[in-house]
Amino acid sequence: MRLTVEQLLDRQEIEDILIGYARGADRADVDLIRAAYHPDAIEDHGGVYVGPAADYVALMAKILPSAPLMSHLCTNISVEFVEADLAVTECYFLTFSRREAESGSFDSLTMARCVDRFERRDGAWKIAHRRLAWEWNHEMPINETWGRGMIIPDMGKAVRGAKKPDDILYGAWARQRSGEEIAA
């Protein structure tokens, strides 16, 4: 099916929302997660949580700031326009996270798939209903050597990812023009 220019722009807006959601989860930027949903949206997080998305976002606001660092990769995004203001999307989230348990630390690799009903209301596409399906999970012992020292020989000098506001994404330097840069 050939998409119109308007549908291509709509598709890009929807993809930006999905990717913004992933960034929000990784950086503990709850405003980005909240922005993905309509106020009356439903979140079904694979049976782990089922209810109003607003309550899910409130829960994430409590959990994410102290959650381990993680990386959500949003892939295989498909968008089907059912009507002018209604779309069904499917995307895969591949999530890497470092976890702590009584038995010790471990790395977790999880694949989940989200099927979302997006609605355009007042000119903005947002999730009206999300359903998540857990696909698989793999856990492994931590073995972080950074290419056995070849990628990063001195980890003491390495800049690491962090949560909002401490991550490099939120630094004022990124929004300054060249020649006007301020300290990191």
- Total of DSSP H or I helical runs spanning 4+ residues: 3
Strand residue percentage: 35-45%
The percent range for helix content is 10-25%
Average pLDDT: 92
Principal-axis shape equals: globular
Order of helices and strands: HHEEHEEEE
Instruction: State the total count of DSSP E strands.
Output: 6
Assign the structural class, choosing from mainly alpha, mainly beta, alpha/beta, alpha+beta, or little secondary structure: alpha+beta
| Biggest β-sheet strands, sense, barrel | 6 strands, mixed
Low-confidence stretches: none
- The end-to-end distance, rounded to whole angstroms, is 47 Å
Radius of gyration: 19 Å
Strand order of the largest sheet: 2-1-6-5-4-3
Kindly describe this structure:
The chain has helices at 5-27, 30-35, 53-63, and strands spanning 37-44, 50-52, 70-83, 86-101, 104-121, 124-141. By secondary structure, it is α+β, with helices and mostly antiparallel strands. It has a six-stranded mixed sheet. The longest helix has 23 residues, at 5-27. The model has no long low-confidence stretch (mean pLDDT 92).
